[in-house]
Design a protein that fits this description.
The complex is a heterotrimer.
Chain A: H1 9-45, H2 51-55, H3 68-99, H4 104-118, H5 121-133, E1 145-147, E2 156-158, H6 164-188, H7 192-200, H8 205-234, H9 237-242, H10 262-270, H11 275-307
Antiparallel strand pairs in A: 1-2
Chain B: H1 2-13, E1 17-18, H2 21-61, H3 71-76, E2 80-81, E3 89-90, H4 93-124, H5 127-142, H6 145-161, H7 173-197, H8 201-209, H9 214-225, H10 227-243, H11 246-251, H12 269-278, H13 286-319
Antiparallel strand pairs in B: 2-3
Helix pairs in contact in B: 2-13, 4-7, 4-10, 5-7, 6-7, 7-10, 8-9, 10-13, 12-13
Chain C: E1 29-40, E2 43-54, E3 58-62, H1 69-76, E4 86-94, E5 97-98, H2 106-112, E6 113-116, H3 127-138, E7 139-140, H4 143-156, H5 160-163, H6 176-189, E8 194-198, H7 206-219, E9 224-228, H8 232-238, E10 241-246, E11 249-255, H9 256-261, H10 266-272
Classes of the chains: A mainly alpha, B mainly alpha, C alpha/beta.
Chain lengths: 312, 321, 277
């Protein structure tokens, strides 16, 4: 006995085709957007790129302006961010993955980290403004604790004020959750059998981590670290809050130097109405994208270098 | 011969100098303590964020020379004009509506495009195409947001929107919204693709074995099975859109108004904060303090959204474990 | 922590039987278990086990999957400590040292008890570093001692001739059977008294299985060996004594030839003749 009406074959084929077309269309949009973005920037920016653009300070005249200060600022801030965020992130990930037992506290900490990763970066700026720049108002800038002398690159004052070190620590706060989560994923992907092998040989917990888990996870951790750093080097909002938006006419000399960074400089120029400034903004974007590309290339090289000894 | 070697090995293994157990215990303990301290840093961050925001927000609501500011007037007021006019008005609704308008435009663009691209990647694309597209998305994900702001100003608004209608000004919600959409596209796409790929192959095989077409399998089996993962992806991406700062600061304009017209300029919560922190507002002034109240509102909204997203994602992962 | 008073080093045992010597059960007991029960969270997986295992012999644990034989094995080096919710009551003693004592130094225990797992799990390091891993954790060796130790351990696991020219290449390049023998060498290098093997051949092809079985028969001259297997032929080929487990209980134990030919219990007979499991 036949009940039910069969759906015509033609209709099924049509819906199948439509689905395929929709998916392909969507993918094409993504590719087109990226092309439009790159082409716009290339057209606007290549004219302004020159050696003197890379080596000059900012100027009121677009033709004479350059990006040496934000370029060096970005490097300083990003380096400080890396020095702080990478070890702290890996350490936290190790504790959560290798040490902490399943408990309520652990899952709360875990939830807290994923929440932190969703906090807008500008909110971290506010935290940094109060904590790093002003040191909660405990000490005023005029009578700061001073360590070292101004000649040394480790010259330090507390409160930090809107300095390179405050900027680096701010970015470290922003990328820390990303760093933790990616390191955790890397550690989780190490087969349990390797940990068992090491434990069965009489390794302590740390020996398992140091000799087995960490080396095996390192390529993936480094990839995550570099992704975190490319996020950091593109951040502008939190640095803008802590006061990194200065017209700076010198490259940083020590931890207490004033600074600006590339994204802030781009924001500054892009926000002006004159199209000449848009051209140098685009040129600065090209530099920024080249730096990011270099980061990704380094990531790929590290990954391959570290993976080689694992293969026979 | 094996047993002789085994006995020799046993003998040699006793030759080395034993490592000090006391030192090793101390070392293990210090390592563990350090790791716990590092882990607590992230907890401390949350605590300090909340403490700072709460304290400054309370300060804003209890300012002696501004008794008219209350929680009620803040959350129900329809006018936000802290800098202009004789009497500043702090009704946060225009900022919230501006934020939501931009986020909605971004979502309307990024959610379907991202999901369909994810379907294409996980169900249709050959491994080669897939790896090329993945790197395109990775590039998009790595582009600093200020670049998207620039793109909105110099391409989206003048070449896409203004030819359509002359009502679009230099700064408008639509251009900023699309740029934010482009920014969150890689997030929607890669998270949804993860969700779709965790759907077990056996479910797909089962459906194909019943004579289903690829459309049937995708629309009726894979997407429903991965739905909570996709929803979580949408939520997390929208959270990013709400908190996005540089794009809206460049392209959405600086006028806080209660509107749903995408050709108008709007001010978002984040853009207002930029305006205040860039300007010369005195640190003790009411405008300056208002930015903390706005930041707290923003923080609460994003916190609730991320939390929801994380919980959905956790449930979803447990389903397949 | 070293416990020289209770620890007898393997080579100090006198009268190890050489290969081919007729099997006799000796009084020398390596492991004693009394009233041992174990749980994973609320599931009781072992019920009041009483079992003695003789030194320098191969003891096989057999039984259908889920009968608790692997759990029992993992209590012998306290690997169950790594599983949340795992606990045990009763008594296990290794040469008189109580293993369930909470004050026991598990790191030291695992140095004295080697373990070989179901799937070969060499570290993604060189062959040399794999074998030297355990010794380096516990002691400081001179270079020559370490090299000799690695060589003798690899000879003991019958792998030396195959790998002596490529000690510095990655262990992951070895075949499955070679990897498993490397894992045995790795366990041997620490100088254990007891070797635990958890279905060591289940991931291997028949030829590699045969070579591992031969190795096990040779190694019992030096070590007490406990092997978990679900392959009854394997148990009968390699072991001196056999313990049959069913649903967390020890059903029967005895010399392997006796247990396989004239089992006392009906269940044992059904299992060894392949009627279930």
């Amino acid at each position: 006995m036949k009940t039910g009406r069969t759906i015509p074959q033609a209709k099924r084929i049509l819906s199948n085709r439509l689905m395929w077309a929709a998916c392909l269309g969507a993918t094409t949009i993504a590719v087109l957007v990226l092309s439009a973005l790159l082409i716009t920037i290339a057209i606007e920016g290549t004219g302004a790129l020159s050696w003197s653009f890379l080596t000059s300070f900012a100027s009121r005249k677009p033709a004479q302006a350059g990006i040496i200060a934000p370029l060096m600022g970005s490097i300083w801030v990003c380096a400080i961010c890396a020095i702080v965020a990478i070890p702290v992130g890996i350490g936290t990930a190790i504790y959560l993955e290798e040490y902490a037992r399943r408990s309520r506290i652990k899952s709360l900490i875990q939830l807290n980290i994923s929440n932190l990763s969703g906090v807008p970066s500008i909110v971290y700026g506010i935290l940094a403004l109060v904590a790093f720049v002003r040191f909660f108002g405990i000490r005023s800038a005029d009578d700061a604790w001073t360590f070292g002398n101004a000649e040394s690159i480790f010259y330090l004052q507390i409160p930090f004020g809107p300095s390179v070190i405050a900027g680096g620590l701010t970015l470290a706060l922003v990328v820390l959750p990303i760093m933790i989560i990616s390191s955790q994923e890397a550690l989780r992907s190490v087969p349990q059998s390797l940990r068992q092998a090491a434990l069965a040989l009489g390794s302590t917990q740390w020996q398992v981590v140091w000799h087995v888990t960490l080396p095996a996870a390192l390529p993936t951790i480094m990839t995550g670290a570099i992704l975190s750093m490319s996020r950091a080097i593109g951040e502008a909002a939190p640095l803008l809050v802590i006061g990194g938006f200065l017209l700076v006419f010198q490259t940083p000399a020590n931890l207490m130097s004033d600074f600006t960074v590339l994204p802030l400089q781009i924001y500054n120029w892009a926000g002006r109405p004159q199209s000449d400034f848009h051209k140098i903004a685009a040129a600065a974007i090209i530099v920024q994208l080249v730096v990011l590309l270099a980061f990704n290339t380094i990531a790929i090289i590290i990954r391959q270098k570290l993976q080689r000894p694992l293969q026979s | 011969m094996t047993s002789i070697a085994a006995r020799t090995a046993a003998e040699i293994s006793q030759r080395g100098r034993i490592r000090s157990a006391a030192f090793q215990g101390f070392f293990e303990g210090s390592i563990k303590a350090t790791l716990i301290a590092l882990t607590l840093l992230s907890v401390l961050t949350t605590v300090v964020i909340i403490a700072v925001l709460v304290e400054e927000t309370i300060g804003f609501f209890t300012m002696a020379d501004h008794p008219e500011i209350s929680l009620w007037s803040f959350f129900t007021g329809t006018e936000w004009s802290p800098l202009l006019g004789a009497k500043p008005l702090f009704g946060v609704l225009p900022l919230i509506s501006g934020t939501l308008l931009v986020t909605a435009i971004a979502g309307i663009f990024a959610m379907p495009v991202g999901l369909l691209t994810a379907v294409f990647l996980s169900e249709y694309a050959s491994p080669r195409t897939r790896s090329i597209l993945k790197s395109v998305l990775e590039v998009l994900a790595g582009v600093p947001t200020v670049v998207y702001g620039f793109f909105a100003l110099t391409f989206i608004t003048p070449y896409l929107l203004q030819p359509l209608s002359s009502s679009f000004g230099t700064y408008n919600a639509m251009g900023a919204g699309i740029a934010v959409g482009i920014m969150i596209l890689p997030i929607v796409c890669s998270l949804s693709e993860d969700a779709l790929r965790t759907v077990p192959q056996s479910l797909r095989d089962g459906a194909y074995a019943l004579g289903a077409t690829k459309f049937d399998v995708t629309a009726k089996v894979v997407i429903p099975a991965g739905l909570s993962g996709v929803v979580a992806a949408f939520l997390l991406a929208l959270t990013r859109a709400i908190g996005e700062t540089m794009i809206v600061a460049l392209a959405a304009g600086g006028l806080a108004q209660l509107t749903v017209n995408p050709s108008q300029q709007v001010q978002t919560m984040t853009a207002y904060m930029v305006q205040i922190f860039l300007g010369d507002a005195p640190a003790a002034g009411v405008e300056y303090r208002s930015s903390y109240a706005v930041a707290f509102t923003l923080f609460l909204i994003t916190f609730i959204m991320t939390w929801t997203g994380a919980i959905i994602l956790k449930r979803y992962r447990e389903e397949y474990e | 922590m070293e416990q020289p008073t209770t620890t007898s080093t393997p080579h100090s045992h006198s009268g190890s039987p050489s290969i081919g010597e007729p099997m006799t059960l000796r009084n020398d007991t390596a492991i004693e278990m009394q009233n041992l029960s174990a749980w994973y969270s609320k599931n009781q997986v072992l019920h009041a086990i009483d079992l003695d295992i003789a030194a320098k012999q191969v003891c096989a644990f057999i039984g259908p999957s889920g009968c608790g034989k692997s759990t029992l094995l993992r209590w012998l080096n306290r690997m169950n400590d790594t599983i949340p919710g795992a606990r045990a009551t009763g008594k296990i003693a290794l040469h008189g040292v109580s293993l369930l004592d909470s004050a026991l130094d598990v790191v030291d225990l695992r140095r004295r008890v080697g373990m070989v797992f179901q799937k070969p799990n060499p570290f993604p390091k060189s062959i040399f570093d794999n074998v030297a891993f355990g010794p380096r954790l516990h002691r400081i060796y001179s270079r020559t001692d370490l090299e000799e130790l690695v060589e003798q351990s690899l000879r003991a696991s019958a792998l030396w001739d195959e790998v002596k020219d490529r000690l510095t290449s990655s262990a992951l390049g070895l075949s499955g059977g070679q990897q498993q023998r490397l894992c045995i060498a790795r366990a041997i290098a620490v100088g254990p008294e007891l070797l635990l093997m958890d279905e060591p051949c289940s991931a291997l092809d028949p030829r590699s299985t045969a070579s591992i079985e031969e190795l096990i028969r040779e190694l019992r001259a030096t070590y007490t060996i406990v092997i978990v297997t679900h392959n009854m032929q394997q148990a009968s080929r390699v072991s001196d004594s056999t313990a049959f487990f069913y649903e967390g209980k020890l059903v029967e134990t005895g010399p392997t030839d006796v247990l396989f030919t004239t089992p006392k219990e009906r269940r044992t007979e059904d299992y060894v003749t392949g009627r279930f499991g």
